[in-house]
Amino acid sequence: MNKKKWSVTMAVVLCSGGMFAFSGLLVPNLANSAVIAKYSTATEVNAKESPAESAVPVLKVEAPVPVSTVNDDLLLKQMTEEQIQQIYDYMELPGDPNTSGREMTDVEINRRLVLEDQYVYDGVRPQKPLPLQAGQGEVYFDIKTNTYYQPERTWTDEELLQMIDWYYRLNLVASKRNITPPAVAVPEKFSKDEALARAAESVRKLFDADVSKLKTNVMLVEPGYGIPSFWSVHFAPYKSLTLLGQGQEYWQYSVQIDPDTGVVVDTTAFNSVMKKTPIDAAAAAAMKKDDSWIKEATRIVKDKQGEKRKIVKAYLTGTEVNNKRGMVAVDVLLEDGSKYNAELRYPGKQLRCLIYEPAGKAK
User: Fold this and answer.
1) Given this model, what pLDDT does residue 94 score?
2) Higher confidence at residue 105 or residue 37?
3) Pairing label, strands 98-100, 351-357
4) Which pLDDT tens digit goes with each residue over 288-333?
5) How many CA atoms lie within 13 A of 180 on its CB side?
């Protein structure tokens, strides 16, 4: 497969693991690297929901657990040899696809999110597949010119479903073509189940959140493009696309674990509607004289994370970039050279993520 088809490959990884909605929230170094998921699973488990006024994140748990209607074998059986060959031809095209027409509005994007959940969980399908040449509709993909054509008017539900259906079929065929991923030596004591258990415990410790009723995806990301291998564990509500499209608040969590040591290296919480408050010059100047941010970061490392090693230094870092993001990052250095980076939301000091770098890797 052409290197330019990275976007397709990554979509395969995410879509096959039920993480399609999460793709835009991945860490930057992962989102720009070609990786293959060696293992992927959706584990159906349970969690308690917290009241809105509580400090515990709202999880938006639904019951009963919905069941996906997207069956790989079924989709393949519905495709002709000609349709499969068209996707193979597309994958060999040089360069990334072009787009012609008006960009989707926020309202259309939200409609598409809700329709995608209906496609997956309710079996809603388009009446016809996405046209792959001109003359069959205003929304189509011209394989010859590698161009998606979008309407200047509002998208219909049928057109949105055609595009959703096309991407799922594209991802499916691409995943079947990538037969043998590179092998990664993973000690058995740090298996998929162990990674899941450690990830759930990390979320519980740092965010006081029970993830047992959330949809769980676990995959081993292969090394490549300078990115080491790691276990990726993601917790999110079922039908989170619908929640996102409807503007409802919910939390999801992403955890990365070193497959060689079993150490949790990144635990991050994402909120669907929380607004960022950029830090202006006056607030930034005052923050340099306010040690409460450093105290909160060190408290999290000691009391929440349970770190017993001596902390030798803690300081604000990346302030210029983080001020624009409305985040305050604190590096917490340990006596053996290891380091934590705690990122806190401004102005409330809520933890967004805790990243760990063992000695020898910390800068």
Assistant:
1) 83
2) 105
3) unpaired
4) 899 999 999 999 999 999 999 999 999 999 999 999 999 999 999 9
5) 1
Cα gap 324→243, rounded to integer Å: 27
pLDDT band (50, 70, 90) for residue 181: low
Strands 215-221 and 230-236: antiparallel
CA distances 315 to 242, 318, 353, Å, are 40, 10, 16
User: Rounded to two decimals, what is the model's pTM?
Assistant: 0.77
Other Cβ atoms less than 10 A from the Cβ of 280: the count is 10
Q: Cα–Cα distance between 205 and 306 in angstroms, integer?
A: 9
Residues 6+ apart with CB under 8 A from 278: 323, 324, 325, 326
pLDDT of residue 161: 97
Would you state the pLDDT for residue 350? 96
